[in-house]
Amino acid sequence: MQMLCSLCGEVHVGHPPHKIRTCDVKGSPSSKEHSWVKGGVEHVLPLVESFHLYDRIGRAVSHNEMLEVDRIPAIVELCVQAGFDIPEYPTRRRTFPVYCVAGRIIDFEKRFPKEMSLGADIEAHGFWYKKKKLNEDTNSMVMHSDNIQAIAVLGMKAWEKMCIGASKLMEKYPVQTCGYCPEVQVGPKGHRVRNCQAFKHQMRDGQHAWQKATINDLAPPVCVYHIRDQQATKPLVNELKRYYGMLPAVVELFAQAGAPVGKNYASMMREDVVIPEIDEEKWVV
Fold this sequence. Notes:
The protein is of the alpha+beta class and 285 residues long. The chain has seven helices and twelve strands.
């Protein structure tokens, strides 16, 4: 079960929720205890969106186009720019290489005849107004199985495969992120939409400060406290919080369902640390 603090937005995977007093936002109680409500998938695996580009080396999306250009999951946009075709999100594929010389883009398709046309039904601008058709095969992810552990194992493998694959794609197809806010734009340059709401954004007129992104910007991990087997029936307490490990929420969700956790998360889980009883912890210096 995914739990969400209605005040600060902290996430907890499991039941009962922890009693660690870390809620320190405006409106939180003086005890700093969380106000837990039921959460959803979007809290465990937050969705990061990016503007879909018809031409990845064309001009950047302007501020006036922010409501006209489709925003799709950034991981999907990365796959589209890397070569995966989605009919409702067309993109330009070039048959000749493009070079950047002294900051100037040289497009050889303008100097040589094209082997294939772009198609009469594709326009460089305004394609986002076309009605999208949902693929019945991918409209919903339905697991026809009652084995929760098997589903968790498949989910853990898919998560690791996605992270590894996205990291490899980002080595060739760059992704930009704002240095002030979590905004992400897939492509060699960022957009010009002035929607940055970070600290002192008025001084920048809402413009973003673009820099190279990492996999954590594309798929931000929401870290939660790790629940061991012997802790499954009792909540984590504030007095022992320094002994608890943490995991990305999606990994913790699969782990509690029975999926094995990879060795790369061993240091975060801290399962080699013995958790004392509360009366024992008082004597620890």
